Amino acid sequence: MTTPYVRLDKENAAVLLVDHQAGLLSLVRDIDPDKFKNNVLALADLSKYFDLPTILTTSFEDGPNGPLLPELKEIFPESPFIPRPGQINAWDNEDFVKAVKATGRKQLIIAGVVTEVCVAFPALSAIAEGYEVFVVTDASGTFNEVTRHSAWERMSAAGAHLMTWFGVAAELHRDWRNDVEGLGTLFSNHIPDYRNLINSYTTVQAAKTD
Amino acid sequence: MTTPYVRLDKENAAVLLVDHQAGLLSLVRDIDPDKFKNNVLALADLSKYFDLPTILTTSFEDGPNGPLLPELKEIFPESPFIPRPGQINAWDNEDFVKAVKATGRKQLIIAGVVTEVCVAFPALSAIAEGYEVFVVTDASGTFNEVTRHSAWERMSAAGAHLMTWFGVAAELHRDWRNDVEGLGTLFSNHIPDYRNLINSYTTVQAAKTD
Amino acid sequence: MTTPYVRLDKENAAVLLVDHQAGLLSLVRDIDPDKFKNNVLALADLSKYFDLPTILTTSFEDGPNGPLLPELKEIFPESPFIPRPGQINAWDNEDFVKAVKATGRKQLIIAGVVTEVCVAFPALSAIAEGYEVFVVTDASGTFNEVTRHSAWERMSAAGAHLMTWFGVAAELHRDWRNDVEGLGTLFSNHIPDYRNLINSYTTVQAAKTD
Amino acid sequence: MTTPYVRLDKENAAVLLVDHQAGLLSLVRDIDPDKFKNNVLALADLSKYFDLPTILTTSFEDGPNGPLLPELKEIFPESPFIPRPGQINAWDNEDFVKAVKATGRKQLIIAGVVTEVCVAFPALSAIAEGYEVFVVTDASGTFNEVTRHSAWERMSAAGAHLMTWFGVAAELHRDWRNDVEGLGTLFSNHIPDYRNLINSYTTVQAAKTD
Amino acid sequence: MTTPYVRLDKENAAVLLVDHQAGLLSLVRDIDPDKFKNNVLALADLSKYFDLPTILTTSFEDGPNGPLLPELKEIFPESPFIPRPGQINAWDNEDFVKAVKATGRKQLIIAGVVTEVCVAFPALSAIAEGYEVFVVTDASGTFNEVTRHSAWERMSAAGAHLMTWFGVAAELHRDWRNDVEGLGTLFSNHIPDYRNLINSYTTVQAAKTD
Amino acid sequence: MTTPYVRLDKENAAVLLVDHQAGLLSLVRDIDPDKFKNNVLALADLSKYFDLPTILTTSFEDGPNGPLLPELKEIFPESPFIPRPGQINAWDNEDFVKAVKATGRKQLIIAGVVTEVCVAFPALSAIAEGYEVFVVTDASGTFNEVTRHSAWERMSAAGAHLMTWFGVAAELHRDWRNDVEGLGTLFSNHIPDYRNLINSYTTVQAAKTD
Amino acid sequence: MTTPYVRLDKENAAVLLVDHQAGLLSLVRDIDPDKFKNNVLALADLSKYFDLPTILTTSFEDGPNGPLLPELKEIFPESPFIPRPGQINAWDNEDFVKAVKATGRKQLIIAGVVTEVCVAFPALSAIAEGYEVFVVTDASGTFNEVTRHSAWERMSAAGAHLMTWFGVAAELHRDWRNDVEGLGTLFSNHIPDYRNLINSYTTVQAAKTD
Amino acid sequence: MTTPYVRLDKENAAVLLVDHQAGLLSLVRDIDPDKFKNNVLALADLSKYFDLPTILTTSFEDGPNGPLLPELKEIFPESPFIPRPGQINAWDNEDFVKAVKATGRKQLIIAGVVTEVCVAFPALSAIAEGYEVFVVTDASGTFNEVTRHSAWERMSAAGAHLMTWFGVAAELHRDWRNDVEGLGTLFSNHIPDYRNLINSYTTVQAAKTD
């Protein structure tokens, strides 16, 4: 097996959110903006829900790249936030790597903008240092499908695990019985189809008890 | 001119939301669920914002079609709500038509699920009775692009105006100076790209006053 | 209004199925074969369900064009079946036109293969003779999207109503109360998403009575 | 009816092939080159087959626009060929209009490169002078789908009939019995799926006589 | 070779159908519902045809996820059916693994909803325990193409064989002479194009004997 | 004819560029940014080349909508530039309408961002006042294809002519002999394929004179 | 390197054409029929041109699968032709393997219909026996993109080289100087864009010598 | 790891531009011409910016393949330029390989037309000789997506790193502080969205100092 199964473990995983900034988001054209924003917030919410150590970083927040998505700042008011003074690869920033090491986690869940740079560079660096890297492909955006597929191929060839936020949540949770309502709420808040299922179900259930 | 310019007027327009029900939404496959839900709520919010008379109707809410989107009920707690006992074309329901007539409005903004039935039938009936009909295409959903384009063609050929929620809001508002913040908030809440522009702008503006 | 609303009426409508033959179906590439077959059979089933006069015709059934879909023969064993000896436009065949006139109906619902020839030619001829023509776009197939859109545009410009089988069924039925189970069964047999809604609903309902 | 049915008549139709030149063909990106070349040659072959008066014209054949497709010259060695000295709209060239008038035909079948200029301009001019114009959309090419749809919409709104080569052939032929083998060969030479049907059919037929 | 050829063997293969439930199916948007339902039933039918041990499992069948597709229950009335009380990865359920082991088979053919969770998790777990895993990609569905490709890449990198139902059937059957009619019927029931070929062929054959 | 042929005349046409602002451009997602920017500049260059009166207008240039594309300011340093204080429909701004009337032109070529608002509103208003309106569809951008097609349909139904920049240039120029080099340069600067044709041609020509 | 560079060598390569039959071609829907037929014939022509040993095989040619493409029989009248009596994997047929071995070649260029069965099975078998396998992806067709990508992934993971006919021709030829006209003719016959380049070039060249 | 992370180093990288010729560019149909030209020039500009040794090569520049893009000649007037007399694989040309070796670089950044031949062949040859190869996928073009994906798969399987020009620039630059203005200008010249961000930002900044 090229890349054997490594299972996400909520006691051993950390989340790295790289450069989800208002200006850079206008560069993202491989995923529709409504869906992309939802995916990024879903990843943030699941990180909060599973209480994973989360590290935020930005590049030139006070320039044209624009500020970090305000929603992310609100969700992670206490998390390490590393505005990089210039390093393009977040892994070249000592404070960032220190913050990662401080978590003590060996499984890194990474998402960012744009995929082939802000995600791929730290992902490849972390793999080279022995971390297991899980790229959240649908919370990472880039210019178009050519740049996306090239980035995915490069990361996958180096041993990164390609996942999406829903799979990450499911793999971390393991068993619905750990908390049916919590996971259900997470899904309901970010998957309209799922919310519809629940609405339909609870309506019939409610009628039943009448 | 086949269909001359008729300009939406907030003193003369009403909104009809037809069958946005949890079950029926699973039939919608011509627009992505994240985007579609956003469009429907954007239309609801703009109707509220412009204080337009709004009429809600459903088909068999207590059967497999499922309940009306709860968000719509919350936004319009006082609006006429007509659960139809069986009429497929809402215009065949006397209460519905009475509610429309009670608004005194002559411009009807219609959206619903599915486009070729729940939207097209009342739209065509209303045109036949002399109303000006504005179909909100992006808040109306259906099975696929073939059904969508057939429905658009039929309605357009009968004289319906095809619009989208953003155009409806802009045409109703006329001038930003009527309320910059209100319209800006509406757009910011439903267009991630627009919110990013505002976030970037206000960040630089804030820095400027430091 | 270019093409005013004409409402399908089950007492005044007939169905014309033109050249749905095994060989010709291999020419259809604008709709996926699974979906296309389903749409054609859905149209046939609705015609049966509403007891509409239905006329079948083929072109060179014993040559490379192949036999009529056997399912259609089974559904309409008693319907007029006109194998045309050579006329490309079915309306050029006297027997076919006689069969149409014999129905006494003035609303013609037409579908066939391929759209720009076998559907468009009789549709245009019928309009020219004063019939109201309703083209079932999703039960009509052709080579690609260019041929399809050109055909739709030509027919629509001449006054044809573009519809799909689901809209036809809904417009004919008018009111669910006429027969909830019958229409529900029709939809359930041809719309997997709808069947899922019913399955989910009845499961919860059944549990409720336990 | 906006554009009533006008039926192509092989005694009253002429074909205009405008600027199918080697260089200009590299601008065509709305149809795949294999398919586009096939469509153009199919239109040429059908024109030959039905013995329609055909007029060829080019724009700056000895400059970067390149020579007329050699196949067209071979198929129509005797047809009027008008290399225009500069007029972009072929209808502005007196020799071209003279050649059209000399045919005595009132139905003009037009195709060319690029759709919104070389096809649309003479098509609109001819309509304005009272001709019935049939645009062969799949033998006309342009830069992309935006340019194509804009051109189709402009021509259709002015009364042009949008058709494709297969429909043109079928409408001109009227009845297979006029010449089964001739039309079958035309289709077999330009529709691989049709050729396959014939090959399969004749193979079984041949086996049958063994 | 990363993943050497392992050939499916009907004496050594078992089929695992994971969470094809009415509610969850509304989440599937990477394959059209008509086609997806057909693929799932084709896989079920081939499993029955080759008499493969088949295991069914569901997640919260009495909640919003909805009941197992009734057709699957009808096809496999005697097969092990494991409704999981909460485990997301079916492989975490002891009864499920026991049922797998009880088959004595070492080749596992897996399909389910959604691909990146209900299929990928047990597939990766089974590979890790030494099974050969064959994922039936077209009988597995998920939210969109991003989630699908990420899941495929993760499974393929771990050594899973990506196949589709038609390839599975062909690889298991080995030689048409084992049963021409049986395999032909399977294909005819689930591939409209194939059924058309057979209809055309038998029609000519029949004529031949007249 | 619904919309008869009206031919662009360089003595009677004016160009209106509406809201091509840096911020608003990030909302445009129905055309790729490289291509869209090229189309807008091509329209500007052709307006300059044909010496057409050109009017620029913006909405809130000093807010989040951002400044007018600097390239447009450079190309039209002397043209009327109307920053609107709040009117969404440019035609509601008296200065803008005055500037239009001051040109004395009756043919208005309009492009802008976004199509269904900034283009459609003044286009519809101008038609209502008797102008001939030519919408440059490929120099106008919007959120997605649903918003685009709805806007096109509404404008076309009201009598607007849908064109693209290449067609506008060709229709204004009429005859290459008016200025071969000038038009060739315009095309070469904005159509890479055309520039390649010229490069290849001139290379061989140059070799020929050696 | 997972799959190191192996360079096609015209002294060591053979071509296997598997099941390009008239009936089976109607199953191919992942490539347009015009393009697919062209690709298959291009591969046949290049095999002829480079004088590669070529082996043809079919499955049930006298049943619904239909006869081999007649063009292939004409191009390879003397080549081994193995109509398989039932084996689905051609490699299971002893005559076929004997014919392969008789060529003495170790590089096998394979194409066929459908990709995941008729191509993948013998490709995987040949790799397992030590051959270098080059799959010609664009001369191999299947039902849809899901089946195609699954098949590509399976073959690539097993060590197959994915190529297309143009690359195969170029790699075999090595140097244009071996025969400029021959290779040019091959490309010109199967790539319309290339033929246009040559036509434009030779036209200017010819003018030069005048 | 199949292909471990190798980081581009501006002291160790060279750029190879293969066959970006005017004629061959008309064969490129997997990327839009506006975007493709921009990508090629962006790669050239970044090579210049980072002062990387750059080698240009062409195939039959004085024949139908056409001349090298003039812009490339202008950007690299002093770079080695190797017009190949016939070798299809540039690596078969001794002068080309000598030029590569003369750079002393071990990381080769390659782009060209068409991807599966002019890029893939030298890329595979260079890998076989121990170079690290970085393919710039978006500055390499080919006939269609089938040829592209096959070429990517073959190169990736052999150990090539798939990148795009933006990622190459970012990886070479390492840290914005090395030269903010230089890299910003490069991006601004080739990414309209990025230029818009800068324009919006500097406008507000400028206003701030008023």
TrEMBL record, chains A, B, C, D, E, F, G, H:
Ranges of residues in domain Isochorismatase-like? 14-165
The UniProt GO MF terms for this protein read: hydrolase activity
Q: Which UniProt keywords apply?
A: Hydrolase
Q: What is this protein called?
A: Hydrolase
Which SUPFAM superfamilies does this UniProt record tie to the protein?
Answer: Isochorismatase-like hydrolases
